[in-house]
Each structure stands twice: as structure tokens, then as C-alpha cells.
Amino acid sequence: MSDQLKQCRDQIDAIDLQLLELVNARARLAREIGTLKNGGPIYRPEREAQVLRRLLDANQGPLSAEAVTAIFRGVMSNCRALEKELTVAFLGPVGTFSEEAANKQFGGLTSPMECVSIDEVFRMVESGAADYGVVPVENSTEGAVGRTLDLLMATSLHICGEIELPVHHNLLSTAADLNDIKVVYSHAQSLGQCHEWLNRYLPHAERQAVVSNAEAASLAKQAPDGQGVAAIASKRAAELFDLQVLAASIEDDPRNTTRFLILANHDVAPSGQDKTSLVIAAKNVPGAVVSLLAPLAEYQVSMTKFESRPSKIGMWEYVFFVDVEGHHLDASVSQALEELKKRASMLKVLGSYPVAVI
User: Fold this and answer.
1) How far is residue 251's CA from residue 253's CA, in Å, rounded to a whole number?
2) Active centre residues (catalytic)
3) Domain named ACT: which ranges (predicted)?
4) pTM exceeds 0.85
């Protein structure tokens, strides 16, 4: 070993000891803060978003922004665990993108709760069996997840955070060659997100929609040799089910991203860079929808999403899911919401929460 290499390693060893001391000092302070909360929420999305934004602003590399957020989310997760291990419900089984999103946001899951449906995620959080829930709400290619929107109208839960997860699909199988594939299993949304790739490379393969990509990977693993069964799923699913990656990143749009919501039984304070989600219904009069948008313009509140959805109350009646910039406690947003209440036949604030951090 050269003297220069030894010196570098000695310096790393010394820095590691300093890091250990500092992380434990942070953990002690976090535990002390926990005793001062008097039973308040352990997970504070607005505070964690502020911490991550400050660190990203200060980061000068060579670590990437993604690396910095991953490291400090892990640190914060382990500090939270000194107070309580949070139970997080998600659409399972393990190996789904919902699990990946939950792991990303919470810095790893100490008490994961796999659910068989989005409905069950809502039920587990509403009943208190889970502290938080993570559900998909929209994809940049395939659009909104209708079941999540329907349940948001009916639930008493609050949206307390959002996660944006870049989604990369892979073709997994026990088969050795792409030409052997006769059937492809995946979630319907994933099949849609890989539609053009499948048309080009597997035009004659049968496409079967299943409940989750993890189930698809399980079916591919269980298929007898020579059946030519493949799954579209994540690389984590390939590891979990011991499958080969026949083709990587097969999504049609390389920017393919799924947005997830974090559900809780409590509201969230402003973080300084927030988003408010609401659902509104227009009165059955001419110009009603235009009238709903006027207060946002009047109080200079920027709208980032406006999507219609059947109300399921009457034939051809619709509600509108709206996202605006700002927290409902911000003066401009609060004034706009007050005016909206007068004009809408129904208005429900689904939650105000920090804008997703990398």
C-alpha cells in the first residue's frame, strides 16, 4: 500500500468517527425534541422538507442532490425511530413502486404494512392500524389513478406529503431470450407505460393485467420452464424474485414519473414551499366552472392541476380535483378558499403539504 493511499484511508477513518459522534449528537437532540412534543406527531413532513431544502442549497458536491437527500432521510428516519417505529401502509406486496416510494420518503421502513388494495391502505390509516399511508395518485404518462381520487372524496384523512418517483420498467423473466416470451404480466398502468416498446419488440406476446407488478414478477418466477412468461416490474422485484432482466428501462417516456400521496390523520403546518389539494363541485348554472376559477386569479393563487372526475352521485355530474400553490393558512390561499366556498356547491380541502423534495 502506498503512503498516499494509507493517508487517505486514515483520513476517512478519522472522518467516520467524527460523523458517528455528530450523528449520535443529532439523535440525542431529536429524542429530546420528542419529549417536548407532548404527544404530537413524530413525523413532521414540513420540518423534514425544510431540512432537506436547506441542505440542498448548501451542497457543493461532489455528492449529488439525490445522494444527499437519501443520506439525510436515512438519518432522520433512524432518529424518529428513537421515539417510535412508524407503521407505513402501502400497496403491496414488496417489490412494488409504492413500496419504493414509501422507502424513499421515510428513509427506509422499519414497520412496513403491505396492503392488497388502495382501499385497504386508506382503511389502515383511518383505523389507526397504520400511522401513515402511501398511495399512487397520478402518472406522467397514464394520468390519474381513479380509485385514489374517489377515496379522497370520502375519507377524513389529510394529505400530508407527496412523493415524485421516477419509474423505470424492466422486462423480467426466467427465460434466457426475448424471442422466447409469449406472455407478459404487469399492472395495467405499467402495460400502458410500455405500450410502444411492447408493440415494437414483443408484438405477438399476450399482455395480461394483474393487481401489481410484484404479483407479475411472482407469476413469471412460478411459470414452468419453456412457458415464455415475463413480467414488467422494477429491478428490486428482479432481486426479490430472482429473475433475469431481459431488457431495462423499457418505458416509452424516459421521464416517466409517478406521483404518490402520503395520508395521515393530522394536518401539516406550512413549510414555506407548499401545495394545497382540494375537490370542488360546481353549481348547475351557466358559467359555474369559470366562476370557480375567478377567486384564484383574484387573489393571485397559482393553479397547478385541474382535473374532472365523475361524482358518482348523479348521471353526468362531475367534481374537480384542484392543486394550487401555497398552504391553506397562507393569506392569499385562505381568502381564495373563502370565496370559493360561496361559489361552489361543495368544497373539501384534502390537505396542505410540502412540495416534493428530490
Assistant:
1) 6
2) 258, 260
3) 277-354
4) yes
